[in-house]
Design goal:
Radius of gyration: 19 Å
Bound molecules: farnesyl diphosphate
Keywords: Magnesium, Metal-binding, Transferase
Number of helices: 7
Helix content: 40-55%
Oligomer: single chain
Cofactor: Mg(2+)
Number of domains: 1
Function: Catalyzes the condensation of isopentenyl diphosphate (IPP) with allylic pyrophosphates generating different type of terpenoids.
Structural class: alpha/beta
Organism: Paenibacillus algicola
Strand order of the largest sheet: 5-6-4-3-7-8
Shape: globular
Number of strands: 8
Largest sheet: 6 strands, parallel
Order of helices and strands: EEEHHEHEHEHHEEH
Enzyme class: transferase
CATH architecture: 3-Layer(aba) Sandwich
Distance between the termini: 22 Å
């Protein structure tokens, strides 16, 4: 079945309609939202204005993902390494989740979206954590798209914690080393029961993973674009999905 998508925003009439196969929409899309700072710099504005506009792109991406039938959208909003940034920038970034949720939570609830958080909660300021907890609690019974915010997330820390916890279980006698499986490791990571991403998108032309979902991305399709995150629209998500649909996923096997 073909899903015809006439674009939103900046896909002009002169551009052909994208045809997407409705039966091959990636279930889980993860995005490294990069380029906010450069977007602002190009306009002679402070970096935080880039982040503010990045927040608007979050809304566009979420609407577009939901419209396309993507079941899980994971957004890398703050990494365990981002604390190295200037204090004012970190403080600003930590205010964005609550600002976003103050504006959007009612609509997310209406649209049956389930908000989740993937990250290490302990270092987050209480105002950020409380806003996330409220959104998670108020959308917990929704069974539509999962909007998963990776907040204070770092893959190496996630894996280190997981190994430490398994070591403790072995020490206590509740786990045998030979019983450790890939599925068990996956389920003990912060992504928990979420399936691995089918498609990873990174904006801004950088070609790296930046400590994002290193275990979970083992067989994900990667799509990189030079577009800076604040410029990202639904049309870009469609392009990424169209490209995904041309890939053959072999998982190390043969077609
Ligand atoms: C990387 O761009 C972006 C971030 C570290 C922050 C991403 C955050 C958002 C897009 C907003 C999040 C919104 C919500 C609702 C949680 P950069 O600043 O490193 O850009 P640069 O590489 O051009 O400097």
């Amino acid at each position: 079945m073909i899903k015809r998508v006439r674009s939103w925003l900046n896909r002009g009439d002169s551009q052909p309609e994208l045809q997407l196969a409705a039966d091959n929409i990636p279930e889980h899309v993860a995005i490294i939202m990069d380029g906010n700072g450069r977007w602002a710099k190009k306009r002679g504005m402070p970096r935080i204005i880039g982040h503010q506009n990045g927040m608007k792109a979050v809304k566009r991406a979420a609407i577009a993902a939901d419209d396309l039938g993507i079941k899980i959208l994971t957004l890398y909003a703050f990494s365990t390494e981002n604390w190295k940034r200037p204090k004012e920038e970190v403080e600003f970034l930590m205010k964005l989740p609550q600002e976003f949720l103050a504006i959007e939570l009612e609509e997310l609830i209406d649209k049956n979206v389930r908000v989740t958080m993937m990250g290490h909660p302990e270092d987050l300021p209480s105002h950020t954590l409380e806003a996330m907890k409220e959104a998670v609690a108020r959308t917990a019974d929704n069974d539509g798209m999962v909007l998963n915010f990776a907040l204070n997330y770092g893959s190496r820390k996630e894996l280190t914690r997981c190994i430490q916890e398994m070591g403790q279980d072995i020490h206590r006698g509740s786990l045998k080393p030979e019983d450790i499986t890939e599925e068990m490791i996956g389920s003990r990571l912060l992504s928990g029961s979420l399936p691995d991403p089918d498609l990873l998108i990174r904006t801004s032309g950088e070609l790296r993973l930046s400590n994002f979902m290193l275990w979970q991305l083992a067989y994900s399709e990667l799509w990189f674009t030079d577009i800076l995150w604040p410029e990202f629209t639904g049309a870009h998500l469609q392009e990424a999905v169209a490209e995904y649909q041309h890939r053959t996923r072999r998982y190390g096997g043969l077609t």
